[in-house]
């Protein structure tokens, strides 16, 4: 609908005026020494940090930057309108993998400069897996910056008492869920709400572990594979037999674990500051937490990658966000800006939310450990979590897997997260109204229907 797209673009252009950095002279046209940068890190406090970094960049290089905050859920419409108006930004920051692939599909990317930037900074200083996820046909599509991880969190005190191994395989996970599902404590609290994207992310984490893929290398939907059927069966059994009753979602799973009412949970790394009692609006409420707000964090173990019986290697769901340079960008200043953000400005960039910004560049490990996390209270993660947990978190981008991204199906991934056919099918298995085989077949049919509706 053109009117809606125009409205979104107008809002974005207004944001450009209000958030312009470094005194760009109001309505002046961009000069050869000025670039426009969009960022999806558009929260007010994070915009303030970025404006500070931008000001330093301008002072050092003389290159002016118009910094524009863009909401993730409006990005597709906004970039489409900008491309139609021949008014693309030079650089876009904090773009998730699916958005990078969308830009690739629409031929809006400069696919030469990112590789040069990475080579200049040192290709061996980047996570190999992050580079792989950003690569298509031998071309690096964007410069990977940082990422967040899906994790399996478990109560170390309960596991130690029961003599259980960490839940890093299907077998160990189910055994722990069964044994600890007693005494008013659920074995696991697991998202199963059919209309919650968090359910989709949680299931993809478990499915990747078993070698289940959304599509095969030819782009054919593969959700009815034996690996996927087993993943549907396994996840639904956990939810039905060992989790809290009802359609658990992103909020209820966290609340249950924080109350000490579950032995395990699948959640993203963004929970790390909350679990340490550093946010008032989401803090642990277990009995032991009243005397020590950090008790739950101190007694929680972290598993990054999981392995299923059909999986070739441990895997986990994770998101890599990247810096993209557009096809019409002023290449030299855009390259200098991205290089600056990945080097001189990098510590402050990942410091905006270290619990959800694991460095995709090596050499920043010690600095990341010491970056203050939290909202109402600030404290480095290293002051709360043991060194082995932090080491596992830092290395987690190296095991990130994602449905559809390596196969060039970023648009399909984005569309499925909008319509959520997999959580719908999964929920039906958990409530007993559908078999795993039928659910896998239904999910495949729904995704195929979505794929047909996507403009290729």
Automatic annotation (TrEMBL):
The keyword Ribonucleoprotein does not apply. Residues 1-20 form the signal peptide. InterPro entries: Bact_solute-bd_prot1, SBP. Keywords: Signal, Sugar transport, Transport. Pfam families: SBP_bac_1. It comes from the Bacteria. Belongs to the bacterial solute-binding protein 1 family. This is Multiple sugar transport system substrate-binding protein.
């Amino acid at each position: 609908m053109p009117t809606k797209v125009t409205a979104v673009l107008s809002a974005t252009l207004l944001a450009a005026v209000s958030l312009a950095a470094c005194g760009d002279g109001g309505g002046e046209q961009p000069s050869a020494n000025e670039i426009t940068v969009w960022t999806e890190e558009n929260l007010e406090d994070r915009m303030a940090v970025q404006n500070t970094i931008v000001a330093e960049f301008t002072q050092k290089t003389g290159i002016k930057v118009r910094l524009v905050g863009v909401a993730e859920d409006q990005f597709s419409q906004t970039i489409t309108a900008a491309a139609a108006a021949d008014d693309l930004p030079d650089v876009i920051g904090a773009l998730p993998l699916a958005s990078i692939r969308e830009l690739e599909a629409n031929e809006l990317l400069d696919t030469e400069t990112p590789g040069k930037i990475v080579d200049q900074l040192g290709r061996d200083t980047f996570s190999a897996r992050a580079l792989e996820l950003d690569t298509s046909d031998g071309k690096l599509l964007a410069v990977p910056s940082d990422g967040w991880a899906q994790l399996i969190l478990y109560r170390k005190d309960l596991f130690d008492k029961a003599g259980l191994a960490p839940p890093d395989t299907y077998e160990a996970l189910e055994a722990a869920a069964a044994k600890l599902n007693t005494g008013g404590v659920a074995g696991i609290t697991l998202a199963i709400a059919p209309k919650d994207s968090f359910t989709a992310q949680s299931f993809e984490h478990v499915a990747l572990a078993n070698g289940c893929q959304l599509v095969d290398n030819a782009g054919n939907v593969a959700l009815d594979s034996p690996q996927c059927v087993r993943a549907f069966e396994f996840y639904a059994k956990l939810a039905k037999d060992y989790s809290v009753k009802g359609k658990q979602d992103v909020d209820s799973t966290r609340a249950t674990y924080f109350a000490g009412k579950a032995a395990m949970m699948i959640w993203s790394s963004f929970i790390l500051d909350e679990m340490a009692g550093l946010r008032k609006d989401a803090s642990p409420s277990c009995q032991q937490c009243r005397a020590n707000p950090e008790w739950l964090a101190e007694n929680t173990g972290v598993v990054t990658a999981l392995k299923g019986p059909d999986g070739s290697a441990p895997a986990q769901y994770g998101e890599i966000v990247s810096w993209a340079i557009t096809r019409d960008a002023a290449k030299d200043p855009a390259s200098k800006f991205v290089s600056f953000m990945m080097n001189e400005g990098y510590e402050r960039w990942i410091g905006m939310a270290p619990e959800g910004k694991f460095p995709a560049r090596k050499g920043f490990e010690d600095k990341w450990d010491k970056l203050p996390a939290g909202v109402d209270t600030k404290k480095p993660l290293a002051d709360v979590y043991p060194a082995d947990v932090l080491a596992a978190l830092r290395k987690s981008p190296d095991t990130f897997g994602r449905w559809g991204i390596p196969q060039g199906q970023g648009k399909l991934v984005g569309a499925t997260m909008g319509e959520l056919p997999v959580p719908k099918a999964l929920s039906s298995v958990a409530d007993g109204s559908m078999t795993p085989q039928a659910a896998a077949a239904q999910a495949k049919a729904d995704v195929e229907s979505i794929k047909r509706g996507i403009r290729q």
